[in-house]
Amino acid sequence: MDDGLTMKFQIEEWGKISEWFVKMFQGLGSIETSEEMLRFTSIEPYVATGISLSRQGKMAASMPLHNLDSTFHQVAFDDLLESLALIGDGFHYTYRIPREILSMRSD
Length: 107
What we know:
Layout: E1 5-10, H1 14-25, E2 30-33, E3 37-41, E4 50-54, E5 58-63, E6 66-71, E7 74-78, E8 83-88, E9 91-96, H2 99-102
Antiparallel strand pairs: 1-7, 2-3, 3-4, 4-5, 5-6, 7-8, 8-9
């Protein structure tokens, strides 16, 4: 099955997840990385959004009109690095970078 997610990593592959997380969000806002946490936050005047992942599999995401906290064990990045899916037991969440922020890639 081709689900458009070409780079899929187990939480134990934290180094690879960190590498692709930085590639995905580079130049689009504030990125913080550590051995335990990855965090992206957009910057003004763009859409207020953000996502954070912990090495323990906890996630928090915020987009206009919703916030989400849950647990995951797998991260999958799409081939264009415009979205990532967090997969856990009975849980599947896809975070998509808003178009307004993606437009910064062509600037």
